[in-house]
Specification:
Oligomer: single chain
Bound molecules: S-adenosylmethionine
CATH architecture: 3-Layer(aba) Sandwich
CATH topology: Rossmann fold
CATH class: Alpha Beta
Low-confidence stretches: 1-30
Strand content: 15-25%
Number of domains: 1
Length: 283
């Protein structure tokens, strides 16, 4: 056996000695497995891909995302994640063209940084009272600072129990966030829960906007975190209700206004059993 073989020298490509490696006496170490154990993958966890890459989709991740947005954008429309302010204003216009909010009570869910209230003030519209709720504490901080007359609550709409009901409940841009709240549920089932809960607190009507799936078919394939809906899905859930839906304001945002009383002047309620049946058939 040659000396070289017993005491090898590292060489570079030219066969010259590269670095001298001092010979270190090895101390025995506890045996470690060659491959670190891999944490079991929890099939119940849906991970974020675009908005919060690598984070599980949870209400906390949603709050975190909007906290960051508003810390950066402050009082601007993009704190609310709109690509274009017209998308945001189309929702307000649709609602305000259908109701006279003067002297009425309003609950604004997913209020963001409160630009809706700025819009109302610009138009000279004075509701009797405004209550606002958002899961992002940072959004609510901005609302409290800018609109002290608004009763602003930092909480998940699905967990907060309001003590009263309101003439109108508005949900602008909330339906797109449903995957964070119900990552395991079919999107229509999640939507149903959102609308059912809103109607519970509304005396006259609910305005709800959504991202139009017709113009963003890629979203399912790409597993976007935002949830998109076909207008047909909305209409199928609202059978029996008095409602108006607009899919033409612009390509992306669709708006819907649901009257709490139906065409027979009876309170519109979702028949959860009937809908469950229908949804099961469609699965
Ligand atoms: C797309 S932004 C829209 C903000 C504003 N309404 C607008 O139209 O410009 C959605 C807002 O809804 C809030 N949100 C979503 N789901 C919520 C929930 N379950 N409870 C409370 N806030 C929620 C988010 O934190 C975010 O501020």
């Amino acid at each position: 056996m040659s000396l070289e073989a017993e005491n090898p020298v590292m060489t570079n490509g030219n066969g010259k000695a590269a670095t001298a490696t001092p010979k270190v006496e090895k101390t025995p170490v506890a045996e470690t497995p060659a491959v670190a154990p891999v944490a079991p993958v929890d099939p119940n966890v849906v991970m974020g891909t675009y908005l919060v890459p690598g984070r599980p989709l949870t209400p906390e991740a949603l709050a975190y995302y909007y906290d960051q947005n508003v810390l950066e954008a402050k009082e601007n429309y993009d704190a609310n994640d709109w690509a274009d302010p017209e998308q945001m204003y189309s929702q307000f216009d649709f609602f305000l063209s259908r109701v006279d909010l003067n002297g009425k009570t309003l609950l604004d869910v997913g209020t963001g940084n409160g630009l809706f209230f700025e819009y109302l003030a610009k138009k000279g519209i004075k509701p009797a009272s405004i209550t606002a709720i958002d899961i992002s504490e940072e959004q609510i901080k901005v609302v409290k600072k800018r609109f002290p007359e608004v009763d602003a609550i930092a909480f998940d709409f699905f967990k907060y129990e309001f003590e009263e009901s309101y003439d109108y409940v508005t949900l602008f841009g909330v339906a797109p966030c449903l995957k964070f709240i119900f990552p395991q549920k079919h999107r229509v089932s999640a939507l149903l829960r959102l609308m059912e809960r809103s109607l519970r607190y509304a005396k006259e009507g609910v305005a709800i906007s959504f991202l139009n799936r017709n113009c963003y078919e890629m979203c399912e394939i790409e597993n976007y975190e935002y949830t998109y809906f076909y207008p047909e899905e909305f209409c199928s859930l609202l059978s029996g209700a008095k409602y108006e839906i607009s899919t033409v304001d612009n390509d992306l945002v669709s708006n819907c206004f649901i009257h709490v009383r139906d065409a027979w002047d009876m309170p519109f309620r979702f028949n959860m059993n009937r809908l469950d049946d229908a949804l099961n058939i469609l699965k």
